[in-house]
Amino acid sequence: MEEKERKTQDQINKELREEWDKLEFATQEVRAGEDPYPSTNNSLRVPIYATKSYVYPTMTDMLKHHYFYSRTENPTLYALDKKLATLHEGEDAISVASGMGAIHLACSSILQKRLKRIKPHKIGKFLPQTNSEKIPNFVVHKNQYTGTYRLFLNLYPQMGFMPRIVDLRDINALKKAIDSDTRFIFFETPANPSIDVIDIEKCADLIHEVNGKCIVDNTFASPALQKPLQLGADIVIESLTKYINGHGDAMGGVIVGPKNDLLNIRYFWLELEGQVMSPFSAWLILRGCRTLSIRMDKHSSTAMQIAEFLENHPKVAKVIYPGLNSHPAHEVAKKQMSNFGGMIGFELNSMEESYSFIDNLKTIKIGVSLGDTTSLMEYTSIMTGIDLASWEKKLMEMSDTHFRFSVGLEDPQDLIIDLEQALNKI
To answer: Which residue, 84, 94, 293, 309, has fewest beta-carbon neighbours within 10 Å?
Structure first.
């Protein structure tokens, strides 16, 4: 009887997803995961379930449900997970405490076996040093968010996994880098902070030839502009802190992919590492989801106007934006993105000019992070790149005059006026 009732609930969930899948993207943003939502007591909005435990009148009743402890599942997070899975066209999703948490959980689940009930005297055979002739490796794009870069180069090698840094814009370089011991490839597209665009479909096809996984960080695009799972990726990562939340007031990350893979992550890796999102953050991010496509259209439209302005300004040495014909992978961006996003990279001619420029901005705010309603300018090598060695910056092709501009929702003319006055003072 209990198993029958469990299957009935699973069937209800399946039927709900089938209904959400029939909707257009803008309707999914508002309805998926939330409408209908049986635990809301007819509330228009999913409540904040601020609880750690779930109690039931009998053990029989408890075994019928999947809510036991909020480190694993929470009704507010459930709504967000179902919405994000639908928006990405993935089987399931897990929302976690941060984007870095999502990356670490997803990669850990591929690199390491799920060991249970291993007697201490048998642990030795699982140490990476046991088979040093056959070291498992993974391939990452040469340009990564610096936090991801530190995870891959500073931590994972100590755990017995070898990173291979490759320019994934060069498919031939990827062919040479992968072998039977390659567990996955990981890349952002567009990449942070270089705004590189990488061909998801070609990379996925290659890694699948050696039975590896393709993991794509989709933070700069969001599912409103790009759906990596439909291009062959196995797992998608997003920093929910950025565009999906969109309001600069909550942190989170999400892993989207096959249901079986995510069950392993949820019930082992998430429980083990405790990367749990607060229900308060989930509630705020649910709010952000409802306006995602509207905001991304505005971010993209304004960014295109600004990129064209910067490209024609005599004091700007270089502009990197996927929507410009001058971007080396403009055609790839057109193929896999529905629009080009709100992130612009550009460079000036000297560090002296760069310092003067950023200090003279007025409307545009100086700050790290991105994807906010407010425009944010970052002097890359001095801010998020501050703890990188010179050889690391060279490897990542990080110029000393590079700026990463997260274009907000202000009027484009106000932003252009501010950029122009600051450029005119250098």
So the answer is: 309
Residue 122 and residue 213 in one domain = yes
Question: CB under 8 Å to 8, separation ≥6 — which residues?
Answer: none
Same domain, 109 and 170: yes
Residues composing the chain: 426
The last residue of one of the domains, among 289, 314, 343, is 289
Q: Which amino acid is it at 343?
A: M
Same domain, 212 and 198: yes
The confidence score (pLDDT) of residue 255 equals 98
Say how many C-beta atoms besides its own lie within 10 A of residue 313's C-beta.
17
Give yes or no: residues 337 and 348 share one domain: yes
Share of the chain above pLDDT 70, in %: 95
DSSP state of 166: E
pLDDT of residue 132: 63
**CA separation for the pair 341, 346 (Å, rounded):** 15
Provide the pLDDT confidence category of residue 123 given band limits of 50, 70 and 90: confident
Kindly state whether residues 265 and 176 are assigned to the same domain.
Answer: yes
Q: Are residues 297 and 393 in the same domain?
A: yes
Q: Which two tokens stand for residue 309?
A: 């302005």
Domain that includes residue 351, residue range: 292-424
CA distance 165 to 392: 11
* Domain total of the chain: 2
CA distance linking residue 298 with residue 342, whole number of Å: 8
pLDDT digits (tens, 9 = 90+) for 102-114: 999 999 999 987 7
For residue 376, give both structure tokens: 């944010």
Burial class (CB in 10 A: 0-12, 13-18, 19+), 224: buried
The answer to whether residues 198 and 187 touch, using CB atoms and an 8 Å cutoff, is yes
Say if residue 254 is in the same domain as residue 301.
no
Q: Is 235 in the same domain as 103?
A: yes
DSSP 57-72: SSHHHHHT-S-SBTTT
- pLDDT, tens only, 223-244: 999 999 999 999 999 999 999 9
Residue 378 has pLDDT above 70, yes or no: yes
The SS3 call for residue 45 is coil
For residue 180, give the amino acid letter: S
Nearest CA among 403, 119, 392, 114 for reference residue 272 = 114
User: Which amino acid does the sequence have at 305?
Assistant: Q
The last residue of a domain, from among 267, 289, 311: 289
Summarize pLDDT for 264-298 with one digit per residue, the tens.
Answer: 999 999 988 999 999 999 999 999 999 999 999 99
